[in-house]
Description:
Blueprint lengths: L8 H9 L5 H14 L5 H13 L16 H15 L4 H5 L1 E4 L2 E4 L9 H17 L4 E6 L5 H9 L2 E8 L2 H13 L6 E5 L12 E6 L14 H4 L15 H13 E10 L5 H10 L3 E8 L5 E8 L1
Parallel strand pairs: 3-4, 3-6, 4-5, 6-7
Antiparallel strand pairs: 1-2, 7-9, 8-9
Amino acid sequence: MTTDVGSDRGTVERGHSNGSWTVLRLILWGADYLGQKGVRRGRLDAEHLLAHVVGVGRLQLYLEYDRPLTTDELEGFRPLLHRRAKREPLQYIIGRQPFRELDLEVSSAVLIPRPETELLVGEILDWTARHERAEMTALDVGTGSGAIALSLAFEGPFASVLATDVDEGALEVARRNRDSAELGDKVELRLGPLFDPLHPGERFDVIVSNPPYVAESEAVTLDPEVVEWEPKRALFGGADGLEVVRGLVHGAREALRPGGLLALEVGVGQAGPVVRLLEDTGQIRELRVRRDYSGKERIVLARRA
């Protein structure tokens, strides 16, 4: 069998005509092809892609391993596998990514939400459980897909959440996710950088951001799925990765209510410098750093005095 997915159309069709292209066989073939292209989880991705084409959950495929695939299913699978072989992220191909209790639309206009950011939301919700106030408000700076803002509105005690982004394409994705989650009455979207979209005098109980924090020099260390496909303006934070973080720390001094929480996701090795930036403001009463699932310092939490 040829492993060139671009030239394998005839092979796939002949395999189907004699009944040999079953679910399992196509998964194994797809896994082998993706592995040759450098995809690390080739079988898992092949399963996700085929489940998407067939219209069932991935685990349901395990009950259908011996089922012959239709011509339409084979033809639907082939271009998706080809895209993944070019290292386009699985989430962009499928167009969805689960995040906590939500199922979000994603596209190349936004970063793919990650488990570390789920932890960030969890830390904020834990904090609000201990410090809940009436009519709490939150600001999500650089919302992207809306993952943070929508999760806070869906799971938390917030009366309203404001989500901002510098990219209109990202806000369109967030808007569709907001409407899908039926949170239009609680989540407002505005265009602009950092705190520019705020109205005079607006203050918040929580300010949160997963900002661009990758240093430009680290681009060569990133996987192709990240550096070649995800939006660079949402990835890179200047020479040291802290360019946007500095603006967040500076602007939060005015936008955060006394006793309010500033919650930031940061890059590896950045927690210490970010803590020092916050300490230098002279306005912080409590500082905490939380680790991600791999044990790296990933979340900085600061409460305004």
